[in-house]
Amino acid sequence: EFPITIRSLSEAIGRPAKTLMTMMFQRGEPLTINASLDEETAIELSMECGVDLEVRHERDIELELVEKLTGGDGDVEGETIRPTIVTILGHVDHGKTTLLDALRSANVADGEAGGITQHIAAYQVEHEGQKITFVDTPGHAAFGEMRARGANVTDIVVLVVAADDGVMPQTKEAISHAKAAGVPIIVAMNKIDLQGVDEQRVLQELSTNNVLPAEWGGDYEVIRTSATTRQGLDELLHTIVLTAELHEYKGNPNVPAHGVCLEAFRDEGRGVLAWLIVQQGTLRIGDDVLCGPAYGRIRAMYDDHGNELEEAPPSTPIKVSGLDVVPGAGDHFFAMADIDEAREAAESRRQRGRAESLAGRGLPRTLEDILNQ
Ligand code: GTP
Ligand code: MG
């Protein structure tokens, strides 16, 4: 697929062609949208945008192999409707985590509702018979890359905008990530319980940022919510279910498992714990996986309630143990053929990472760094 035009790369990684052209311009190489990039440059640009093209490439090779083995031409046997993945994006303190907790506690059994103490990156809830997987993201300015990646693994973005604060810098950033990823946006105008909020002003700000509310003739539903009084939660869930029904998100439990790491840390005693979201395939205990620079055999797997699992089909958020080092948020994971293959891939990545960090000291690493230059 190389050389690749700026237009095709932009489509492949879900970033505006204009951004890529700006990046090339800043490298002193102004190019048109139809100009070709060599493989190395394309990979570098993608990395700067937070997309690991090599990983995509490895995944494509795996998927191609699976397609050959199953004799399918594009349609691998066993594709089924999977739970919708919804990522919550928005400015810091606008109420993303509180809203998610409220959505979840509406859903869990009574005995459990009070017991949510630990921070969890992803939840699964059921509404109107449909499972929805929610992914939380931080709103702090420093985590732009996590938001970009969040927007890239998701089917739908719920954009949380606090009614008393309106559209703020990370709201705008979230809008551009969601639009670059080409996913539908549902707006939750949150904290609607506060005295003296000016709804019209928020709608106006959304409009000027290319999110024209449905009530003003646009494409975007704006649901009034309060995580505190629980106003609008059902309506928000219902709107998500309707959007999901329109798109029919499919997954295939029969291909090699792959997905994304949402966050990971080292736990005294249990070693590395990673929150993963399975996008395709089924991840099982005993699978050998590669995840960013980490590899290992899945030793234990838990769902968002802390229950032990044997296997996780598409769209399942899980916590796993068994990786050797802590992977990064946004790193992709793959089930590999065996542990040797996983180890070799991880080791070559670590070497490449060292070489890159030596060569690239001081170079911008994220899209945000580049835009802020
Ligand atoms: P970051 O993860 O740091 O980006 O913040 P966040 O968007 O997750 O916000 P968080 O849920 O932590 O809430 C921030 C503050 O707003 C907390 O003090 C919440 O109690 C409060 N809050 C959240 N939702 C509502 C709401 O609907 N109404 C009111 N009155 N307060 C809310
Ligand atoms: Mg939060």
From TrEMBL:
* Domain Tr-type G as annotated: residue spans: 81-250
Protein's recorded name = Translation initiation factor IF-2
Chain positions covered by the region annotation G-domain: 84-232
Please give the chief subcellular localization of this protein. cytoplasm
Q: Name one GO molecular function term.
A: translation initiation factor activity
Report the GO terms under cellular component. cytosol
Going by the UniProt record, its keywords in alphabetical order are:
Cytoplasm, GTP-binding, Initiation factor, Nucleotide-binding, Protein biosynthesis
Compartments where found: Cytoplasm
Residues included from the entire protein? 409 to 781 of 997
Provide the binding site for GTP: 90-97, 136-140, 190-193
Family membership, please give it: Belongs to the TRAFAC class translation factor GTPase superfamily. Classic translation factor GTPase family. IF-2 subfamily.
Cited function: One of the essential components for the initiation of protein synthesis. Protects formylmethionyl-tRNA from spontaneous hydrolysis and promotes its binding to the 30S ribosomal subunits. Also involved in the hydrolysis of GTP during the formation of the 70S ribosomal complex.
Gene name tied to this protein: infB
